[in-house]
Amino acid sequence: MTDVLFLGGFFNTTFIGLQLYYWAWGIILVLAGIVCLLWYFIGWKPYGPLHGLYYAYKAGSNVAFIFDANLIGEMVAEKDAKCIFDYSKWDYEIPGNMGKFAKWFFYYPTAFFDDITPLQGLVYKFGKVNKDVEIARLLQNGEWERSPSAVCGGVPLDIVIDTDNWTLRKSPQHKAIEIVAQQWNDANPNDQIHSYSKFQKKLTAGEIQCPELKKIHEVTWTRVDTGFPMDLEESDWAGKRRQMAEQEYNEDQITKNRLAWYVLAGGVGLAIMVTVVRFVSFTMAMR
Amino acid sequence: MATELIADPVLVVPEGMSIGPLDFAPVVGVPVWLYISFFFILFFIAINLYWILRIGKLGPVKGWGESLKKMTQNDVQVWFISRVQKLTIDCMTIKDNVLTSHDPANIGMWHVNSSQGVIQVGGCKAVVVSEDFDQNRDFVTEIALCHVCDEFNANQEQLKEEVDKQYQEKLADAKDLGLSEDFIESIKPTIVKPIENCEAYEMYGRKCLQATNPDSLHIPPYNIYNPNRFRKYFPRGCSSMFFGGELIHDARKLNLRRKPKGFWEVHAFLMVAAGISMIALLVAWLFPMGA
Questions:
Q1: Which residue among A85, A257, A281, B140 sits deepest, i.e. has the most Cβ atoms within 10 Å of its Cβ?
Q2: Structural domain count, chain B
Q3: DSSP character at residue B30
Q4: What phi, psi does B186 have (nearest 5°)?
Q5: Cβ-nearest to A35 among B29, B31, B47
Q6: pTM greater than 0.90
Q7: Are B78 and B101 in contact (CB under 8 A)?
Q8: Which residues contact residue A281 at a Cβ distance below 8 angstroms, ignoring those fewer than 6 apart?
């Protein structure tokens, strides 16, 4: 025990039977909770449809925008847009003899990759780093479709159009794809299917059958013609011209508004100058 | 030598304070509770850092939320893909289907032609534009066109045979029925040549494709948009900057009725103000108050 109380014993002051430092810890914990809630609800949750960028960054993969036929979209990590299987749900033979505890520390990508050290595995496991894309690529012998259309915060962005809800994990289409792909993989271990695009190719080529899925999506000529008009209607062009004319008119208004400020500033300047001149002349007259 | 008695220092705890087991100070008089407090503070800092870094990763798409905040009645959210393929999100003014920047120095303009190309993310509608095309993008259309053109180009021989066969059948029927020369002319087959670029699409491709796909174009249900593949059919010289510049020129032509301002119209007001100031100064100088 010390012979002098720290900071003159300020933190040893008791309040409802407890020293102040206990209360300080409580306040810090409560503050931490409040701060967490604030960060979550103000900074994180409103960007829900774009969280995929964070998960893609963490996984070191591409990010993807999945759109349906009506172009309603969400930004997701590459694994959600391209991988058929969720490898975390597979049954793995856990190495070693650690019993139940092993499950807590087992990082499933180590079943596919030898180059992950146990320490890295632990860090990835508790940092929730997802390696599903690498696993799928490995199982497809490196065959993987990537064609980024843009770069978002240094992460390449793929645009995926999914008109039949294949990528929705709970959709009947996804479940059917999982079953058919698994059957194919069991029968063809050297030519496995792990991505939707490879599944699509096999389906189009007629190598696999999946009656639950739509084979085509129709795009009307009206949509094509509005997307790629060969001639814009004159009224449209007139609209553009009107817009420009209006902009020029607004520019004039802006100039006039600026002029008003100049006049005001000039008036104030003039008043100051007149005052100074009067003061100087008055001083000279007094001599 | 007399024995000196020194009493052990006695810790006097003032009233209202108390000491507990955590006041034990193993090193340089610093009590244990202070070490624990230090860890609590570190924990608090770590939590904040964690969230700052986590939310910071969403920085490039912050424009999605910020543009919603600063959006006015005449604005629309715009997802902008630059020439170096950088994606940014902002809001722009839309009027007469034309998107313009809030910054008047930015002459890039886009015509929102395809309403079906408008995307929706998190309940918020947005238009996708890119620097190299002066209209809004519709990825579904681009994929469809690319897919059908590729398919069309790959099956040229078969298509020619089919078209020719159909023509011969129609021709035979027309001759049997004794139909006019005009009718026979009208059933002449559409040219079947590969559609290699946008010009070919405009010239004959559109007709050929509609002949082979009369109702709609068919695409696979799952597609990864490939910008490099699509470039083949992309219209050339449709820079949004060119569009803006061209329209300024057009707008000027339309504004011919408004005479350009002359020198006096622009400067007279300031010159009169300056003149009055000079007179006021001279008056104040020559006729000082009380002189």
A1: B140
A2: 2
A3: B
A4: -70, -25
A5: B47
A6: no
A7: no
A8: B284, B285, B288, B289, B291
